[in-house]
Amino acid sequence: MHGGPSFSGLERSLEELGSFEERWLPFLDVSDVIVVGQRGIGSSKPNTIIETTINFPLDREVTEEEAAVVLKEACAKEKLFWEAQGLDLRGLTVIEAAADVNDVRKALGYEKVIIWGGSFGSHWGMAVMRSYPEIVERAIFRGMEGPNHTYDHPGHLWNVYKRVAAEAEIAQQHFKNSKFIPVIRGSHGAINAAMKASEKFREGIFHFAATGDMSGLPDEVEMPAVNWEIPEVVGKK
Fold it and tell me: Which residues of 201-228 are buried (b: 16+ CB within 10 A; e: fewer)?
């Protein structure tokens, strides 16, 4: 289940030398591989890809509230464009996309499927699991987005890291004796240090965008390592 949403088909990927052997053959060694297209893009008709421009000031940092206003305005403009073309956008949802996966499964005669997806594909996959849990044998996700959202805003992701770190500390106390789950030790502090280390680089980027002067850009930014400590799992095999 492709990310994006931006899947345009396998043709371009398979044109790359070695792409089939590296990306697809390992899967085919253990199962069938079915790639489901996404509604509204790629070979789907109508294709709703649209070019748009979102203008943000380059001489200062844009607040989350400002970005939300600009994005909503752009989306509203694009929505009006497609509605003027007679397109009903109500069918272009992740709920309908999950139904597409189930319809493909039924058409090909599979009782259960293993779903694999990344980025938007993880969001899409979780929609399949919610709507059709009985058809999912296993799920493999990477670059995960949430089941209720599909955002990649750095500030939002930072909040996720903070929640994970806090929950890991609680889990560490709760499972103190059993050591049943992996615990992230010191991740919050390490990630916070990394953010601070990149602050000078970010300021240099804004200065360069506004003035063309590159003197404010450091040669490199040192990013502190996150200390991931995975305790041993104790219990019956």
Answer: eeebeebeeeeeeeeeeeeeeeeeebee
